[in-house]
## 1
Amino acid sequence: MMELVLALAIGVLSASGVWLLLRPRTFQVIMGLSLLSYAVNIFIFAMGRLRSGAPPVLAGDVSDPARYTDPTPQALVLTAIVIGFALTALFLVVILAARGITGSDHVDGKEPDA
Amino acid sequence: MTQADVPAWAAIIVVALAVIGSALSLLGAVGLVRLKTFYERVHAPTLGATLGMALVLLASIVWFTTVERRFMPREILIGLFLTVTTPVTLILLARAALFRDRTDRVEDTPRKG
Amino acid sequence: MIDWNAHLIIGPIVLPMIIASAMLLLDERRRTLKAALSLSAMAAILIMALVLLHESANGAVGGGDTARVYRLGSWAAPYGIVLVADRLSTMMVALTSVLGGCALIFALARWDRAGPRFHALFLLLIMGVNGALLTGDLFNLFVFFEIMLAASYGLALHGSGEARVRAGVIYIAVNLTASLLFLIGVSLIYGVMGTLNMADVATRVATISVDDLGLFHIGAAVLGTAFLIKCAMWPMGFWLPPTYSAASAPAAAVFAILSKVGVYVVIRLSLLLFGADAGASTGFGLTWLFVGGLATIAFGTFGLVASRDLSRAAGFGVMISSGTVLASLGVGDAATLSGALFYLIGSTLACAALFLLAEILQRGRESDVGEARAVFDDEYRDPFDDEERNEPGLVIPAAVAALGGAFLICTLMVAGLPPLAGFVGKLSMISALVGVGDAAAWTLAAVLSVSSLGALIGLTRLGVGAIWTRDEDAPAFVVGAAELTAVAALLGACVFLAIFAGSALIYTDHTAAWLADPQGYIHAVLGGGGR
Amino acid sequence: MTAAVLPWGLGLAQLMLTCAMGLAAWRIIHGPRAQDRVLGMDTLYLNGMLLVVVFGIRTNSQLYFEAALVIGMLGFAATVALAKFLMRGEVIE
Amino acid sequence: MSISFLLVVILVLPFLGAIVASGLPRDARTSAAILSWVVALVSLGCLAALWPMFQDGETLRYEIPWLPSLGVNLVLRLDGLSWLFSALILGIGALVVLYARYYMSPKDPVPRFFSFLLAFMGAMQGVVLSGNLIQLVVFWELTSLFSFLLIGYWHQNPAAREGSRMALTVTAMGGIALLVGMILIGRIVGSYDLDVVLASREAIQTSPLYLPALILLLLGAMTKSAQFPFHFWLPRAMAAPTPVSAYLHSATMVKAGIFLLIRFWPVLAGSESWYLIVGGMGLATLLLGAWCAIFQHDLKGLLAYSTISHLGLIVLLLGLGSPLACIAAIFHTVNHATFKASLFMAAGIIDREAGTRDMRKLSGLFRFMPFTATLAMVAAAAMAGVPLLNGFLSKEMFLAEAVASAHTHGLNMLLPALATLASAFSVLYSLRFIHATFFGPPPTELDRIPHEPPAWMRRPVEVLVALCLVVGIFPAVTVGPFLKSAAVSVLGFDLPYYSLALWHGFNVPLVLSLIALAGGVGLYVVFGKRINANPRGGPWGWKRLNGGWLFERTMTGLFKGSEAMVRLLGATRQQPQLRAIVLVALLAGGLAAIGAGLVIRPIMPTLTLSNWAFAGLWLVGASCAVAAAWQAKYHRLAAVVLMGGAGLASCLSFVWLSAPDLAVTQLLVEVVTTVLLLLGLRWLPKRLETIRLPQAMEKRSRRRRRIDLIIAAAVGASLAAISYAVMTRPSIEGISRFFVEHAYKDAGGRNIVNVILVDFRAFDTFGEITVLGIVGLTIFALLRRFRPADDTLSNPSQQSVQDASDRDHETRSEGDTLKETMLIPRVVMRWIFPFIILLAVHLFLRGHDLPGGGFAAGVALSIAFILQYMASGARWVEERLAIRPIFWIGAGLVIAALSGIGSWLFGYPFLTSWFQYADLPILGRVPLASAVLFDLGVVVLVVGATVLTLVALAHQSLRKPKQRDNEEGELS
Amino acid sequence: MPYPILSLGLFVASILLSASVAPPSLALAVLLALLAPIIMLALGVGRVRVKWPMAIVRLAIDVVGDIVRSNWAVSHIILGRRRHERTSGFIHIPLDLSDRYGLAVLAIIITSTPGTLWVEYESATGRLLLHVLDLVDEETWVRLIKDRYERRLMEIFE
């Protein structure tokens, strides 16, 4: 059940993200990239298979791998989140600068020719 | 202590608190949808933000206190901070709505001063 | 007390990082100090790279090739992250440091003052490139790609101005998309393999279950797409020429290596994961690399011929060079790959030099200077205003001749005409292709020859336009001593490469052989050591 | 008894909270005023936080406390920023 | 020192001279000339010293390794043929240098000219001395290159630029073809060594690669030797200074192609295809060149076409394939060099003295410069093939061969007639050259009175003309040995019988020769006037079939076509680029899936309440995502809020799926991102739904949207399918097991994720914070130059309305509204500050064991700062707190790096962690891990970078009023 | 200790966060309680003087009661029991309380109580604009606020 839901969630998030990514306004693109990075983060996370209620924090001195969910994808997602955040910020500033310099918020810096 | 070791009475208390709290929250959300004007709608989520939240947090406190066999009132922190911070947003929102209405000269908007 | 040699391999990564971050602690106005710091950092990196290169060229003590492996945090591979300096990565690191050094020297003439924190960004870019080249871990590769790209965004936009920002938006959007694809690919591979270490993945490829094979291939394909975007393969590389030609010259010059990092990774992974031992996966994607490479060469050549300004032509030159290496890799022949590796070095140096030259030659004719300056009008001063030395340098008497000569050398290099290294690369590729002798090889040989001619025609037109078509009373070219030094150094490297082409080719031959048999790499990485 | 009550009761609580989130999301999507959307988001965060707490009880794990605390303590920063933006057209003046 | 070292000298000396000459000052005309002269003479001396060896057909080799792995080495190889060519190059080179000294104007940068000339000489030497096929190509291309520089020497002249580009393009194209051809030959033979190749006639001729190799090689030779249809560059190259024409376009460069043909004659000639291609091209060129030469008005143009024609003659001879014809070809090559060089020099003298080369303007120059005229007449006579001159001898041999081969091949029937016709043409244009220039009435259209040139300028011509005469009269004594030695090196020792004598008796060739002479004279008498009057200087009925014109059209077409291709195959706009990328990714994944199969094994869902709640959660999340996608164009704020909703859904999923760390981090990032987007929204234009696009555009964009929707759905479906496939697969035994087992034991942390981040894979984190730092720096740099768009310059409407209402009330002052509104929020947001710090400290300190960690702590801390900014404004905060984000970024990075380097001191690799439980007084047992230090670096950096990003953006509003003031100031 | 109440709050919060009273946690709590307020000094936040601690407790109890009661009331409204007779609207309340902390607490109380919302406060006139969900009698509300909360807050803060 959770697998199916999460797979669909990834699908919807990425579809929305891709749709926005292909739009002509800079703001739409940045939104699209953010949605896509959600999708990708969950995707990475899903690669460790899903476990509910088995957080990878060791309790006691037991370190039986079967008791914990796969921690590696989580670490990867954390890194991806940070990098994604940083690059979203950067892209935002760049589109602001582009908007300031070109006067347009079109991704090509100019309105499409009629 | 594991989940199964918790006495039934505690479980019932916890479940009751949680369910009532959640129900209040749900009610608040219903109000958010049902009420007609923005100013009315602002009131609705407060249900969840006050009593609903408090009950759910209480459920958590009871639960972990039972499980850990010592007083675990950590959730109080959440309650306190939530109580303190919710008004900030609501005040700003209401004020923004008010200004907007004044600019747009909406009927029934209280005049200034 | 510290065994410096043991940590040598991480030097090219950590040193620029430390120097860069130390610079952030300094006041922005201490320019001389910063310039000195970054120059010495680059020099140190170059030395380290050369030591590593020397080591890998001479092989292990007992004979035979091996790789130097550095286990970060003392954790054994595949659990921890490892850095691997083998023939290929060392070669690329050395190339990076030469290129970076020259670009930096060029920047000292004036570009380092065109915006804040140039030196820090530059060194961090070098760090990113070196990291990406040296790492033996897929996700770590992603991280270093991001370092490299983040710094490249900064440098691409360095100096601001309309053209840069406009191209920058597309550049960043494309690369962010590529990064997402990268993540999808890496995580999918992790999902099927349970590991991130390249060598470890390679050991598991052959034994992968039938159910997982498809997923693994999808992961590899998506990952490959991400890299090919970086390589600027057609039809995913249209961002490259506008971005590189809009970027400031030193940035563009050092960017010449960025697409090559993509190429490097494609070479590395495709030969490591899909080599002869890969079972059902052997040779995965090679056909597409070949086709894409050909398309890239063709498109790049068209672009180069159609270019109306030099830096754009140089951008297309970068594309051609990527396409050439990719297509040669796609042929699946070690001798061709060896030639392609040699060609890669030469063409990268040449394209970088071309970017630098383009800036000098186009200086004074730039039409967007006015626009660019308009952006500066705010409370911050114009970056070029606050310096006593506003102009890039002195009028050197023989400037035209020197620049003409330099341009000529660039043209020969890019077009692959004799007698320089570009020719040697093309020669060895074509002769290897003739040796392969199948239809694909013939096609590639033909395309390579035609592309040479196209490059020659395009560059001659531009060169004649830039150097010969000048009024008698036009102001002489103004060239800073640093700029001239940088160009001369790059071209000197090309000449050097041509003279010692014999040894270099032997090196690349061994590299191609080493890559063709990934067992050496795998043993070096996974064989013991660490906690 | 415990084993029977807990999953059902807490599951019910979760379901109700999710419904509350759904309603809040409805308000976000439908507006009509920008203020409504922000209010909806505030509600969404609140119910999300409660969901985390209930989930903590359900899985008998205290590890999610930080997540709940962060929503409770810092989640308002996002809504305040939105509200301030609506109020002043600028988040930081 | 071995004698073969002299080979190196004669190869390297010109290049050395070129380098020295390029360093001479601009006006050092004489010293550069002397230098070049000395270089040429010394080389010639060396060559002469080597002569005795070649009388017996020996070969001298000198080998320097270059690319041993490819079989390409520098092999200097001298035999009779190359000796002859080398002598020609150096000898005529020496004469040209002398001539050029007087020809070149002192205003030109003459040393550069000599530098190029010497370099060219060296390159030519390289071609003839090459003992390796690839090396030959190298020097071959060098001759193209230096000829480009020499032709374009007067680059102020557009004709020179065009001519040089054309020459380079054509010859370099040939060079590339030649390279491939050589590689093919090398492939057939197995070696690039000339000696090996020359011994492998059998292998080459029987190889399937023979024909392609032959064609490619001929492409090289024919372009260089200006053979039809590649002849057109040569007349255009006449824009070069005359010494260049005299040297390159008569004696040396164009002869490189001939040299190549002769060199490979032994191995390639004799086949049907050789005969057809080489002979056909030669014949066509012979006739065409001669025909065109007749109509030229430019002296140099006439000479250029006559050169083409004579080269055609030589090629034809080589194409015939008989050994005698080959000898004739060698002989004519030498002869042609002597008379054509002298003619070019004479033309140069005329140009210099008369100021023009147009034959219509020239007339009767004999009376002004009788000496030069005489020299020119002799040379022209040699060109025409008048007896007693060298041209006659080789032409006789040619006619003889034409006659002799008339029986060997069906197509050769016409050969004697055509040869005679070409000879007649040759007589005709030679006559015209002389007659139109030197005879007739005195010239009227000249701007100066011609004189004899300086004596030393004439000397080279005299030497050459003397050679023509001497060779013409005493061929066997003068040129005989050299010719024989060259012939031996081509044909081997069993040379066919040939006689170098003036008189062979009254035979068919002589008759043909006489017919040609008489015919030529006759034609001139009949048509001379009309030819001179022909205005265009081209042959009759000759318009479209002009190679040069076609070439230029081709080039224009190439540029235009390339532009069109780039437009067609490329994209400049972002949307198609991203679309292409997404499609390629889809395609790549799809192909991979088709290739190996994508297996999905669904598992039965378990329907518990909690699972339904999870499904509900994602119903919310997904609708938020879709709604965000839908609203992002017109309702940006709504989109930001909706994004937050989707983000919250993913945070809660992380909670649900056992990832508390992720949930905390994602939440914190969510908050910061929202603030960030809002800060940015301030500077973006308002978009209104009411603006409608034109009908046609609307239609197009609707179609595009439909395509994008399909792409988006495909991506979504694929990712969903892939992730579902993986999630339903049993887990893989991977590296994670190690992490779980060793996190506590060997790294001292219970939170495995955090241990991975700061220990097992700390290097990733190290890189990640670097990214964050770089982004901070970049944003800072960009925003320093930030210029807002005009419509965002003014205050937001809310502020102006509120300020205005404040101003309108007498009891209120501007800003009161803000103060009152923020009264309560300020109190709360200030007092919560220390509590957030507390939270951050906890997140940081316990991160190793519980959810949290450096990054979360850092972001929490920066939110605390941002709250203060929001509450009280940037000025207020910065007056009270010293915020130096860049310093923090630097400090964070330094701390992280130093904590990594610290392990070097203990002899461990970078970032090796160390942990210990310390028993402290009072506090008891406290865990100490060096990874905490690293994490501290993370915190510091994250705070710096995040605060920098947000604050730099926020500062733009502060800068704005200043700017507006400036603008108002400028207006008033 | 410039802000004793704050320090106390921080100490307690730290203990709660650690969920432990072991010596290291206590030490950390003390340390944070002492150090964190420094930032408040830097920000120049004025100190708070509270007079009647017991009044606080009593007020808190009353507020909790009010909250529970109004939760009940508002639930009814939302469920639509009293839709027809109900009017909502704004009321103005003249406030005498001027201490910012007092006002802040008042705002929190009013907003936290479902059914009332703090909208606008004018510092010059001390007039507070309130939105009330169930506005039966304006005067009752004014009395309620002034007597029940404002007076007691003035006792505490002024």
## 2
Amino acid sequence: ETGTPEQKLQKRIADLHQPRMTTEEGNLVFLTSSAQNIEFRTGSLGKIKLNDDDLGECLHQIQRNKDDIIDLKRNTTGLPQNILSQVHQLNSKLVDL
Amino acid sequence: ETGTPEQKLQKRIADLHQPRMTTEEGNLVFLTSSAQNIEFRTGSLGKIKLNDDDLGECLHQIQRNKDDIIDLKRNTTGLPQNILSQVHQLNSKLVDL
Amino acid sequence: ETGTPEQKLQKRIADLHQPRMTTEEGNLVFLTSSAQNIEFRTGSLGKIKLNDDDLGECLHQIQRNKDDIIDLKRNTTGLPQNILSQVHQLNSKLVDL
Amino acid sequence: AYKLWVPNTSFDTASNWNQNRTPCAGDAVQFPADKMVSVLVRDSHAISDMLLPLDGELVLASGAALSAAGGDSDPACNPGAPLLFRNPDRFSWLDPHLWSSGTQAPGLFSVDAERVPCSYDDVLFPRDGSFRVALGPGPNPVHVRSVSAVGQTFSRDEDLTAFLASREGRLRFHGSGALRVGSQACTDASGCVCGNAEMLPWICASLLQPLGGRCPQAACQDPLLPQGQCCDLCGAIVSLTHDPTFDLERYRARLLDLFLKQPQYQGLQVAVSKVLRDAHTEIQVVLVETEHATGAAGQLGHALLQDAVAQGSVLGIVSATLRQSGKPMTADS
């Protein structure tokens, strides 16, 4: 190996900032620092699985949940408010009778 | 490099299907091709963690969210519809008086 | 080699349980055993990406969905129940007329 | 007795790479696509690209790391063509170069057939290293007493068979040959026949492969070919017949202490073992002149004959015969 001690140190520091796969006490650790990413990419038919879970499926479910929540919000906001006021109007009409 | 053009082609095709770890602009990228999967598997007591989050827990939360949404739909659909029609009936009865 | 027989046994077990990146018919599998974790740790700007999805973003969306569901529950429980009883009261009042 | 498997398939072993160096920062590396292998990684490596085998594993030892190569790679490193991981199928069980029998006293050696595990041997694969072994070729199963690998010791055939069929086993053992365990340890003080005689043609083929399959020419006239040895050699062979009181280890120690320590025998190498010759067992003592032929092997052979006559009743030796190679060849003959 060549280079001054300073260059080597610089290099080592630079290396430490690179994204990496490493082990710590038997754990498998994927590390990023600074602005670099770690990416996992399959082909179009490949899946990413976390233990028994298909990540693609999970991500779809997150999106479906999000969409359902938007629908629910649309259905529930306004509607009960409206009903409440109608019921109140009925009540006052009955009192007026 | 040696080999007939056919051998070289065979080799290149084989290369295309080999899983690969590569560097793209400082990012660390794990790749599989076409129909191959990327899987993360721990032992029964091991966890998959993203920073401080237990990913298994997160995936459970997706299912819990889904279940909650089903409950919310059951509670909100039907009920307001029913109420709306009841309120309308009340209104017409009041007009009839 | 040094260490008591027990330490050596511990070491042997540790050896068998070392984390590994395995390939099975072109699938890429990251493995840990028994009680060891797979961990993703990102720096402030680094990301873990699974195909086109940012894993950190996904986990945030799960939490946002959960928070929205809590809000929806708060808005919908109580309100329709209350309305239903009010409508029933109105009905009985009308019958009494 | 035991035999230890020497070669490994570690990422950090220079000889496992086609340029006889481990990957340096910025290297592109390739594993053969179709070769199953388990590879241990102990150090940290920054790599620009790595093609993995379709079936295999990289095991990360504590503190090992694989990282993306940084913007500036090591200036001492000159990444040109990709660094290729050598064919992990190249290591044969039958290759005598690939086994060690631990500490062998200086001056002693084993004939080629006995450098490979004998039927009474315990076979050890490195516990904290990755390895891959080709079983076969050859028509007969290999028999040994036990096999220790990946932290387990297999001394029953059914356990070994299950292991060999498992993924862990298939990553480490391959080839057409069969491996059996459960044979007896050698409990006969006069020694046991190794049992590799029928394998000798394949053992010699492995041994001589780096030499193009041919033995180097022996540097003497009428060279000798001991039982279990692949190539002719120059020196002497003493053959002993014995009674049940003969003790092989004691005789080896006697050879070392009484004879090989004498200055005139310093350049000699001696192999002592029980071999099968013409359907009878005998003790074969091979005396080899390692450097220049001085005639020391013949002198020691005669000394051993005299010793057998004088001390035969004490040592359990019934008879002794001596064969010697002929005159050394001169450089220009």
